[in-house]
Amino acid sequence: MNVKTKDKIATVIFYLIAFLIVCVLAGLLGYILVKGLPEISWKFLSTPPQSFQAGGGIAPEIWNSFYMLVITMIISVPIAIGAGIYMSEYAKQNWITDFVRTMIEVLSSLPSIVVGLFGFLVFVIQMGWSFSVLSGALTLTIFNLPLLIRVVEDALRSIPDAQREAGLALGLSRWETITRVLVPAALPAIITGVILGAGRVFGEAAALIFTAGQSTPILDFANWNPFSATSPLNIFRPAETLAVHIWKINGEGVMPDAAAVSDGASAVLILSVLIFNILARIVGRILYKRMTSA
């Protein structure tokens, strides 16, 4: 068998593997959307859930999911960018740095249920915040930080040293080189990592069962006082997200139309992640063009 034949066989195998992956993803998404889209209506999206009767919606759960995501990313992204910059540009290459990187990798591989139990012990019990948006967001920050830190560090380390040297040669300080040269150049990879991290946060359930709770109080969307118990902005109230809601109604089985609600909520969850990813990439491209004058 000559080299060209081997190359053709390998090419066909790779195409088959790619086609198989696409088919599996398309089948999974198609199954969820085909079953869930018929259940979606304006009433379903704008009304609260019902426990013992049919016809409930998922409005509070949609709000809780996005609110939890925003708070988590507001906390985790700045910390991850700062830690990634330090690990890439300032930390010395020694056993301490290697140990920190190893610990970050260990934390990124922890099961979410373990992180949830840690958040339950620290934020819910020790800090006394009970089941709340804040407890859930801080737990998800711990869950999400290792991935974001490694993404930022790898994105910065992938930039050629010539760009660093060029910035310093132009008279820029080290910090100016990082903020004006390296970070803009690494922005696409950083945004990709942030999107992946946001997807993990948005679909997470196990960690939130123990920290954000499995219920939501009656919310008054006309009340935007963050200190009010009925305000959707209150970070000290329980907040059942979409993923937790799907798990709960399938586990309890007390809702007459549990299957229909679960199918609709799953479709909304998939579509929300898809829309978020698309919008995040559009915003990322705009920021990249402005920061690099491309």
From TrEMBL:
The UniProt record lists the keyword Methyltransferase: no
UniProt keyword list: Cell membrane, Membrane, Stress response, Transmembrane, Transmembrane helix, Transport
Annotated ranges, domain ABC transmembrane type-1: 62-280
Example GO biological process: phosphate ion transmembrane transport
GO MF entries: phosphate transmembrane transporter activity
InterPro entries to which the protein is assigned, alphabetical: MetI-like, MetI-like_sf, Phosphate_PstA
SUPFAM superfamilies given in the database record: MetI-like
Domain of life assignment: Bacteria
Transmembrane spans: 12-34, 66-86, 106-125, 131-149, 181-202, 265-288
Mode of membrane association: Multi-pass membrane protein
One Pfam family matching this protein: BPD_transp_1
Subcellular location: Cell membrane
A cellular component term, taken from the record's GO annotations: plasma membrane
Gene3D superfamilies registered for this protein in UniProt: MetI-like
Family under the similarity heading: Belongs to the binding-protein-dependent transport system permease family. CysTW subfamily.
Alphabetical list of NCBIfam families matching this protein: 3a0107s02c
Protein name: Phosphate transport system permease protein PstA
Naturally occurring in which organism (per UniProt): Listeria grayi FSL F6-1183
UniProt lineage: Bacteria, Bacillati, Bacillota, Bacilli, Bacillales
